[in-house]
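The passage that follows is intended for readers who have already worked through the single-chain material. We present the inputs for a multi-component assembly, then the predicted structure in tokenized form, and finally a short commentary. You are encouraged to pause after the input and sketch how you expect the pieces to fit together before reading on.
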Amino acid sequence: MAGKRGATPATYSPSLTTAKGKKKPPIFTDDANWVRSDGRHFHQCRPAFLRIATVNSASGSAYAEFGNTKVIVSVFGPRESKKAMMYSDVGRLNCNVSYTTFATPSRGQGSDNKDFSSMLHKALEGAIILESFPKTTVDVFALVLESGGSDLPVIISCASLALADAGIMLYDLVAAVSVSCLGKNLVIDPISEEEVYQEGSFMISCMPSRNEVTQLTVTGEWSTPKISEAMDLCLDACSKLGNIMRSCLKEPLSAPEE
Amino acid sequence: MEVEKELVTPGEVLGLGSDFKAGKGAYFSPDTKTIYASLTGFRSIIPPPIDATDQRPTVEVSGHKAHGAVPEPGSIVIARVTKVMARMASADIMCVGSKSVREKFTGIIRQQDVRATEIDKVEMHASFRPGDIVRALVLSLGDARAYYLSTAKNELGVVSAESAAGGEMVPISWTEMQCPLTGQVEQRKVAKVGA
Amino acid sequence: MAAASGSNLSSEMEVDAFRRLFPLRFHERHLLQSIRPDGRTLGKARDTTIALGAVTSANGSALTKIGCTTMLAAIKLEVMTPTAESPDEGCIAIDFHMPPICSPIVRPGRPAEAAPVLAKQLSDTITSSGVIDLKELSLVGGKAAWMAYLDIYCLDADGSLFDAALLSAVAAFSHLRIPVVSLNDEGRIVLVSEDNGGGKLEKEPVNKEKRKLKLDSLPFSLTCILHKNYILADPTAEEESIMETLVTVVLDSSSQLVSLYKPGGPVPAHTSAIQDCVALTRQRLKELQKILNGAISDMEVD
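Having made your guess, compare it with the prediction:
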């Protein structure tokens, strides 16, 4: 019978006939003239679609869509901390990131990103005025509906919007952007296919108005000039993203005059 | 609306520390000597009181969506008694001031905080019953488990209680309530109505 | 002293505080006037929307909203070897998830009790309604068939979860597009890429005609609360938490009864009340069919 657990046979996702023995995707080639598969320039981010107050059951929430990367974040609290917790004069932040089973090309792959919960926590914590909710906890839960690349930076930016929507006091918003190193080129806001072939990855989370970095991760092989180039690219993109986030927050308050 | 107010979001600059004081929804950064918004809302300026020594006006963020109500020391809360023990009663805080809380916070009323007089003679079981609705004052953030609550004032104590027979009881003195169905009198630490 | 202390209390506090402290009294006051706190009449369901194709990583998907209750259903097709007993049938695996984003009562690592119950109900309803002929999922008799993984995620839990979940599942099946595949020399099913579908194909596709499932009689449902003599259609989470007797009726497109759930609750249901619920579901069925057909034709226009 359908739907019965345990009885489900082993399954596989059919792959493309062309995937085997054919030439590598153009991403591999060092040709400076290749175009990104979505037609963007190397230093161009995907258009960001942001919306707040999408989950009514939560104290605050936000939805972010960057290309095929789609994320929802709900914020609950400040609410009672778990009973097992020690007394704390400042508030606590608790973060969790999960993926839908269909978020990735092959089923259930998203659960590989176990470190995202703690990365999210570390990226946000410095921006929250924890003294404003002593003893209580603010929960930030993210669900990746579809993974389309640059998932973590999208989650971080979306979570910061959800915190602002929940009325949690913040030093600043947090905007996050990543860059992939592909051969000689740096591409910003990479999609999944680009991340697969990247030689190195660079991500910054920052408070755009305060000009402070809350998180910086560098993986892979990087030369010093490349790092500073990536840093400039990310900081510039973060400040632009920050402006988009601010207009998203202001939208419901700037009273419609119709 | 008199003037078009400026909309701000967390992190936006509200003014310099030398010109303003930070009000609600705003914070002062000693590093940059600047005042920033911490919430989304309208930037508004409140002139200082005429007799104040500090003549800087206050800049704050108003009309924002603040987070849900959270108990603070000094706030008056409405709570539902969940458990009565020999030395304390525990209660779920449902409202802070006139605002309901989204979820619940746990509070406890210790024996010495039930009433102002003869504190050593307080009988917890003759003061509260599970299910009672009490009005209480938040004494402190308490411990990891609960907020500490007090009913040691005339206007604090049980404000609504059901009798064993299921009737809505009527206060007859500051220590007794009566069931309108059976006439049965039960003991409570009753809050003085309209005090 | 005529006034009871409770009513004195109610006069001094804000409406939402009274609602929080005395929820049953608050709702019964409304019921007396045949209106609900959100302004609906008792038999009226909330505004409902369906958006097809919400996620591109799945073969079929739909986002549905009933009031604030939001569900995202997605179907991913994978290939399996059919069982010996039914060599020419595929399979459907249905799961229902309540991630922590959807409700303050769900915490990570502490799943909602309701989720497995709903998963079972949804699975039973969809398989028993005969909406999908499993033979349609066959690719190569005895060798390969589709396994359709249907995962439904609750994104915002505000009552009547089953109705919204079933609607999203039905909508996702309506949106499902089966990829063209062929059998390669190693006996594996591989995708035939759309753009070189012309001349240089080595293998003939095995499912050229079967791009869409034939959906026979779609099931639709309505959940009602029974409270005293009142019947409240499409309850919110708050209503469900206060008045606990629920009845869920599932009808198919031709108004035939597929299933009926009344999972206990303090109010025993008279047959007349059940009949009233069925009548309300019959009305609701028409609304839902119209909304789904609208969503399907919107998609075909695009």
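Commentary: The domain at 41-177+212-301 of chain C is CATH 3.30.230.70 (Ribosomal Protein S5; domain 2). Chain C touches chain B at residues 1, 4-6, 8-9, 12-14, 16-17, 19-21, 104 (CB under 8 Å). How closely did your sketch match?
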